[in-house]
Each structure stands twice: as C-alpha cells, then as structure tokens.
Amino acid sequence: MHNKVSIWNSDFIKISSAKCEERCILYSAHIAYTSYENLIILSGTVFSEILLWKPYFIDEEGFSPILKRLKQHKGVIFHLDFCPNLGYICSASDDRSAILWEIDNKELLQSLSPHNKDSLNVNLVKIPLCYFGDIMVFY
C-alpha cells in the first residue's frame, strides 16, 4: 500500500489508518502536528509533486482527499521539512533544486540550484532575529 499512514497508541495498538487518494510511490514524507485531528501529511512523490493531506478526513473506503498539491520541481521529491508556525515548507528534488513554499497561498518564495551537489537535504531551522549580549531571540 502506497501513501498510507497508521496511527498507534502508546500500547502499540492500532487506532486507525488512512490512505491518501493519490496512491503513488513516495520518496519522502513529513508528518506534522501532535494531535490526530490536526495531523498533516506531506508526501513527496515520484511525479515531482508535494501532496498535503489529513488522515483525520477519510471517506467510507478509508481514503483522504488531497488538500493541496504543490508543483514546481522537475524531479522526484527527496526531502521535505515543514514549519507549521510560519507556514513554510522546504523541499529538495533530484532536479538539484530546493524550494521554500508558503503554504497559505502555495506561493514559491525562494528557489536554490546548487552547481556541484549530487543531492540536497533541507531543514528549516530557527534563526535568531536579534542578539542582546549573550541572549538570542528566535521567531
């Protein structure tokens, strides 16, 4: 089964499972949020797309609809990261690009293309906004 998530409790008992309506092979995924109702899955597909879906919303057959489909890469999505506080998604592809997305409007914010890299890994990190002596203030 492709593009499926199962939820287990702390006693390793399966609570539920859901399948994205797009049942393709994934090369990357990212699970965001801590409660089941707010859980968002980001799926990086072999078709150069990032799919956003919520396993909490399922139909009678157990399928979850795609909430957003992000298309800009020209290769397989190999790495994803998500900052829910800012609404940013960062993705890397075998087309040798990294893209920073703002998910509220799916707008392409910034794109990078390395010259001599075989692959890219991307991570969103907290960057200090300002310094006060030895104190750093983060977003």
From TrEMBL:
InterPro entries: tRNA_Anticodon_Mtase-Reg, WD40/YVTN_repeat-like_dom_sf, WD40_repeat_CS, WD40_repeat_dom_sf, WD40_rpt
Compartment(s) where it occurs, according to its Swiss-Prot or TrEMBL record: Cytoplasm
Gene Ontology CC annotations of this record: cytoplasm
PROSITE patterns: WD_REPEATS_1, WD_REPEATS_2, WD_REPEATS_REGION
Keywords: Cytoplasm, Repeat, tRNA processing, WD repeat
Primary localization class, coarse: cytoplasm
Swiss-Prot/TrEMBL WD repeat ranges: 70-111
Keyword RNA-binding listed: no
GO terms, biological process: tRNA methylation
Protein family (similarity comment): Belongs to the WD repeat WDR6 family.
The protein, known as: tRNA (34-2'-O)-methyltransferase regulator WDR6
Source species: Rhynchophorus ferrugineus (Red palm weevil)
